Amino acid sequence: MDWWNDLLETGGELVGGAIDAVGDLGDNWLNAKVDQEADRVSSANPDENRANENNYQQPNGEPVQTGWGAGGLTISKDMAIAAGVAVAICGVLYVATKGKK
């Protein structure tokens, strides 16, 4: 009967090891699914996924210009300074000629 006990003991160890392996596999699978779902939920936040840029596109894929750039008129910093200086010069000339009358 020793061989019978040995057979039952060995079979029990094999079955127990298989159950442990399947349990570990299921636990790993469950942890992976939970982590995947957590990543999916965190990546669904639109504030983190895309910047708030209004880069609209035309049907051909080119960006749509909005504001001053829509009509092709762009004002650079240098142009604004030059316009300000021209207005100041005109103002000074107006005041200077107005006082001579």
Fold topology:
Layout lengths: L1 H42 L2 H4 L27 H23 L2
SSE string: HHH
Rounded average pLDDT: 76
The tally of helices reads 3
Alpha-carbon Rg, integer? 39 Å
Question: What's the helical proportion of residues?
Answer: 55-70%
Q: State which percent range the strand residues make up.
A: under 5%
Summarize the main sheet: none
Keywords: Membrane, Transmembrane, Transmembrane helix
Protein name: CsbD family protein
Summarize the structure.
By secondary structure, this protein is an all-alpha fold. It is 68% helix and 0% strand. It is rod-shaped and about 135 Å long.
Walkthrough of the structure:
The structure is a single chain. It contains three helices and no strands. It has 101 residues and is an all-alpha fold. The radius of gyration is 39 Å and the shape is rod-shaped. Helices cover 68% and strands 0% of the residues. The chain has helices spanning 2-43, 46-49, 77-99. It has a domain at 2-53. This is CsbD family protein. Residues 42-60 have a biased composition (Polar residues). Keywords: Membrane, Transmembrane, Transmembrane helix.
List keywords for this structure.
about 70% helix; 3 helices; about 100 residues; rod-shaped; mainly alpha
